[in-house]
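dude i think i finally got it to work??
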Amino acid sequence: MMHRAGLFRFHEDMENMVQVLEVPLSGGQASAVFLMPFHVENLARLDKLLSLELLSKWLERTNVTSVAISMPKANISNTLSLQKALSGLGLTDAWDQKAADFSGVSDKGKGKLHLGAILHWASMELAPQAGKGEVDVEENVGRPKLFYADHPFVVLVRDNTTGALLLMGALDHAEGELLHDEL
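look at this
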């Protein structure tokens, strides 16, 4: 588990029983937003509840607050085939060997080249970054709120300028070490 205390944007939604924590990423152009149920549960309820409108409401309600964070080191990754999505957008000839025309790419000519697959791979590593966003605990953090991520949570990466969501993932189980440790 990684531990950090500092001043972060934080909100507790008592009605939906969800903690919202926003942590700036290095460079300050993006932030990681963590959504965690109050109690240990799978993410089905949060997944059903989550909408862009509710996320916007939660983010508007965050305030800079003293927060003590404990979170597992993790790497969240996924590979996704884009063929169905791109075909739905009208990119259909590229998959058909007879209809595909990649003559501008290769001198092999029409009918020789076509796409077999387009894959998108994304990975996000949750790891400590020394000196990034830390606040001196003794001087600046009084009675901090606790964000103790020893159970499933959702993480989003959003652009701080546009608010666009760049990446979304979830940690619903840990492989290897147990998540729980003593603070």
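Residues 130-140, 176-183 have pLDDT under 50 and may be disordered.
im so relieved honestly
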